[in-house]
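BUG: 3D viewer hangs when loading the predicted structure for this chain

Environment: internal workstation, default settings.
Expected: structure renders.
Actual: progress bar stalls at 90%.

Input used:
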Amino acid sequence: MVNGPSGPVERHEDGVRYLFIPVRGGRLGAAVDGILPTSLAAYDDLAHALSGADVVHSIAREWVGSLERAAREAGAAFVETPLVHPGQRLSGSATADIARYRRDDAVIALTNWEKEWYEARRVRTVHVTGIGPNLRWLPEVPMDMATVLFVGRKERYKGYHALRDAARIVWRSRPEARFVAIGQDSWTARFERRWRDERWIDRGVVSEEEKAEAFARATVFAMPSVHETFGHTYLEAWYAWRPVIAGDIPPVREIVRDGIDGLIVAQEPGAIARAIVTLLGDPLRARRMGESGRFRLQQKWTWELVAERTERAYEDAIGRAKAG
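Structure tokens produced before the viewer hung:
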């Protein structure tokens, strides 16, 4: 859509209508809108797009103010998935955000921990849906013997920098280990020195096919993040039957069972390195963790199950909106 025509772009696929609405300010406006909780889309375009809707569902907090206003004017139920990251800048925990959550016809949380966070702030219309994996298939390629995969924005809070420091420790005992990091660079990356070690492979944003192959080839998935609402890449690793190394924070501890589906670690290079060496040195344990994660995914977080929970949230929201 980068080279698409100016103005809203409409597409129809499998009976679903997709409407892409541009923002004011061109590429600079798009960049600002993608980073900050702003509303740079023309309000008339939003209002026209939402005309006749039964439910308006805002995921994340970009455009949320305009979306709520347009939903109310259209007489639609307003549902929000805020994706709060308490403790992080622009995390969705401000007074104005909480006031809006209380007004919403439904708030969708991804974990029970997140639901309890809202309820502690007197938000009473909270539903837990979870999320599903973005992977839909795996290529038939062999698993590497010692490859650690990271997928996500290459931000410090995600554990990217700590994982780089951990790699140096891992190489002391496992010099053959490879690290593959996939994802968008942070804005500070231009000021950082690039590694020259061929065992650390930095890749940018890749296609879904390339990502699927990376998961299939990986031995271990590691994202020791300290700010997540859910961490859907752990599900993608489990979809590929791989064990995970996850951050030690409440919502992630709800998803990843320490010692069963993977290892929970502090975002500290030594702890991350020990977890990597442990899993690389015990293939049977690593395989069992990957299997456990795959079964957990099938039982709790398929897209079919997520869709059923979301539909129930919509029905409840519509009832609340009609009741006034």
